[in-house]
């Protein structure tokens, strides 16, 4: 999917919501545990109930790897279901990968070819030759951590490096990399006040914004400082939506939470 | 395994060699492709031929994920084989993970509990609360990227942040984290000249050193500047050992390459 197509989807659905599929077997409704594949059963129900309200789904690979083979199978079934039933959805493998060149190529193949995700999240610490192998894939997107939503972001990301905070160095340096037009960036909603500065460095890139809801980020602030002419934002909510209820109507409850956010987004877009 | 036990193994085997199991189906001997699980068949043969020459094995997860379910299954079989047949080996999941707290906990469970690795590599970009969940596991080790072996290391890691290079900030800051005694660090052999500085910050920690061989790092230099009283080094070689030959005697060829490195290490240890 191209970023133009993503923006079209956002305008059509009046939503720039991304739903994080972070499935924890301790948190899903108990009756699903009887299913052959409880993780996929949960995801399918959530997707069926919410796909008209969002433009992207983001499984975090940690939650699947924690269940070993079963988990990886559930991830495969989830992305296949999305690609077959909802090809209009932008899919994000939230994997935060990054390694030396030939190894990054293997990760890129895993997520872009084997699983056929539209995008993958990566960590910038190892620099240019750890990210360019991802950028080499046509019509695929690489979403690099810039300023994350957690407290630990202040450990290194905001440290001044050569008179500029590390996350700004990361943003600026990455613009010179081959195929950098395939880059998007992670910027936590909990750091909305930094968005104006970030937009001055990467005015056109899409930003994936986690941290609205459970982590306390504010949607209005994010949009005020982060939105561009192509919208340029994907706001992620995971726990706040998918664990809205533990009873048999969990999918409807999730849809209600998604609807709340979509309605707020529609109001912002119509301004 | 404790670091004391690791040092004992090193002294007993006169080797601080770690063998990287980065299995690429395009590079393994063709006759193995007929096997039901070619990746595991390759790993088993390499392990059987080399286990007396090394103290650690390090599968890089990228190479397994690239083959989807089959790959994950091969990884499970490999670590199980190591844990059952060679419990004296220190096992490293080279995964370079790192995420916000609850997600890092899921990764830690995946590698420490589900797969039962002794250690996992992590990326520091997201700071303290992304790493501490790994450190919370008793008798498990978390190996954090400090100064990596690739060219991209100079993009951010060596940038001066508050008058100190980022990788030094990473080393120093991490010492204050809860359970930091469970930390080890990745330092590329291609950056041997930095090792004296690194040792002044983390004198007692084990360093995992990739980049000897294929990437051009020098073993003597690494030992000169990086070794401490408990040895404190694990030198990794992957491609240089496991792809020594493509014919039916590939495992013997790998053992020969491992023997070369082990002999060099024995000479250094006996000085």
From TrEMBL, chains A, B:
Name of a matching Pfam family: OMPdecase
Domain spans labelled Orotidine 5'-phosphate decarboxylase: 16-254
GO molecular function: orotidine-5'-phosphate decarboxylase activity
Reactions catalysed: orotidine 5'-phosphate + H(+) = UMP + CO2
Pathway per the UniProt entry: Pyrimidine metabolism; UMP biosynthesis via de novo pathway; UMP from orotate: step 2/2
Active site: 96
Protein keywords: Decarboxylase, Lyase, Pyrimidine biosynthesis
EC number: 4.1.1.23
Gene3D superfamilies membership: Aldolase class I (3.20.20.70)
CDD domains: OMP_decarboxylase_like
InterPro entries: Aldolase_TIM (IPR013785), OMPdecase_type-2 (IPR011995), OMPdeCOase_dom (IPR001754), RibuloseP-bd_barrel (IPR011060)
Entry superkingdom: Bacteria
UniProt cross-references to SMART domains, sorted A to Z: OMPdecase (SM00934)
EC primary class: lyase
Family to which this protein belongs: Belongs to the OMP decarboxylase family. Type 2 subfamily.
HAMAP family, per database record: OMPdecase_type2 (MF_01215)
Family matches, as NCBIfam families: pyrF_sub2 (TIGR02127)
Name of the protein in question: Orotidine 5'-phosphate decarboxylase
Organism classification: Bacteria, Pseudomonadati, Bacteroidota, Flavobacteriia, Flavobacteriales
